[in-house]
Amino acid sequence: MPAHTKLWYFEQFRMISALSDAQRRQLEKMTRMLEVKRGTRIYLPGDPSDQIFLLKSGIIKISTITADNRDVILAFLHSGDIFGELAMVDEAPRDHRAEAYDDCVICAMNRDTVLRLVRETPEIGFQITKLIGLRLRTFRSRVEELLCRSAPARLAHAFLDLAEHHGVADTDGVLISLRLSQGDLGRLVGLSRETVNAILQEWREQHLLEMDRRSLRLRDPERLRLIASRPAGGETGSDTSGVETE
């Protein structure tokens, strides 16, 4: 178990600046710090919405099953993110799943505990409301992206987003230390594994990126930004963006 106290982690997320000392002690007593291994499912669709989670370290994958039985990745969350936050406003069972995409350290908070703190300290409720609004805007943007962008543009946009949240820039581009499979990339952008493979192969040949089982390197982020800006139907010839959408 990590050496830092639970309150130290909350301080990093700026969650408790508005709380009194007594409330901080109460929060520490009523939360659990957990270490979870890669592949562990934190919750599944149909599970009760009775906990809210803070991600201290690692990567959490948020995904869902569509009406036509397709597995879709909604987001990869990183250190500092909250998940399961809809439990604050909706007691309905979970409609998505949260899974450790890497080894993680998370903090679990009982829903009733957080609601009590919100009633006592409205600033916490305000911050969580802002988070929910931001998450909804992000998901809305994802829907618009899938509807309006070409297949290569979707993939390029996803890589740039991953680079922003998980990447480290160096002299050779941007390194993203995520073990991303082609299947997961397809589920992230709404494409088949075969389509993703065709695009990646062309991009490798053009030295736009390098990819192995443990990491991804964007060698030419600027060119990927140009590809990401192209709408569906905007490709010509055999250019990199010429792979058909599905």
Q: How do the helices and strands follow one another from N- to C-terminus?
A: HHEEEEEEEEHHHEEHHEEH
**What composes the largest sheet?**
4 strands, antiparallel
CATH class of the largest domain: Mainly Beta
CATH topology of the largest domain: Jelly Rolls
Strand order of the largest sheet: 1-8-3-6
Shape: elongated
Corresponding CATH superfamily of the largest domain: Jelly Rolls
Helix/sheet category: alpha+beta
Number of domains: 2
Rounded mean pLDDT is 82
Q: Could you tell me the strand content as a percent range?
A: 15-25%
Give the number of helices. Answer: 8
Helix content: 25-40%
How would you name the oligomeric state of the polypeptide chains in this document? single chain
Distance from first to last alpha carbon: 45 Å
Radius of gyration: 20 Å
Description:
By secondary structure, the protein is of the alpha+beta class. It folds into 2 domains: 6-146, Jelly Rolls, CATH 2.60.120.10; 150-242, Arc Repressor Mutant, subunit A, CATH 1.10.10. The chain contains 8 helices and 12 strands. The chain has helices spanning 6-12, 21-29, 111-120, 122-148, 151-166, 182-189, 193-205, 221-228; strands spanning 31-36, 41-43, 51-57, 60-65, 71-77, 82-83, 97-100, 104-110, 167-170, 173-176, 209-211, 216-218. It has a 4-stranded antiparallel beta sheet. Strand 4 (60-65) and strand 5 form a beta hairpin. The longest helix is centred in the middle third of the chain and has 27 residues, at 122-148. The chain starts with 5 loop residues before the first helix and ends in an 18-residue tail after the last helix. Mean pLDDT is 82; it is low at 234-246.
